[in-house]
Amino acid sequence: MPSSADRVWYLFTAVLDRLPPEVRVAFLLHEVFEASYDDIARLIGLPADACRAHVEYAREHALPLIQLLVEPKKAPLQ
């Protein structure tokens, strides 16, 4: 039986895997490692504005799904 950490990691990576590779890497570099858009641009060979757009896209599409992992579900009102 997988541990809670294994289960969360699996779900986290499943969410990230839904993003295109260049979006995923820009998002992780910026959010996890606090890399600037200029640094990300140099690393992945895209303009800084494109890197910024990738991070914004990931925030819009991945963060809501990731937040579901950490926020308890609220019971529907009856």
Topology of this protein?
Blueprint (H helix, E strand, L loop, with lengths): L3 H14 L3 H11 L5 H8 L3 H14 L1 H8 L8
Task: Give a description of the structure.
By secondary structure, the chain is mostly helical. It has a single domain, classed as Winged helix-like DNA-binding domain superfamily/Winged helix DNA-binding domain (Arc Repressor Mutant, subunit A, Orthogonal Bundle). 71% of the residues lie in helices and 0% in strands. The chain is elongated and about 45 Å long. The N and C termini lie far apart (35 Å). The model has no long low-confidence stretch (mean pLDDT 89).
User: What is the CATH topology?
Assistant: Arc Repressor Mutant, subunit A
Count of DSSP helices? 5
Which structural class do the helices and strands define? mainly alpha
Whole-Å distance between the termini? 35 Å
- The residue ranges in which pLDDT falls below 50 over 5 or more consecutive positions are none
- Backbone shape: elongated
The name of the CATH superfamily reads Winged helix-like DNA-binding domain superfamily/Winged helix DNA-binding domain
What descriptive keywords fit this protein?
single chain, 71% helix
Short description:
The protein has 78 residues and is mainly α. The protein contains five helices and no strands.
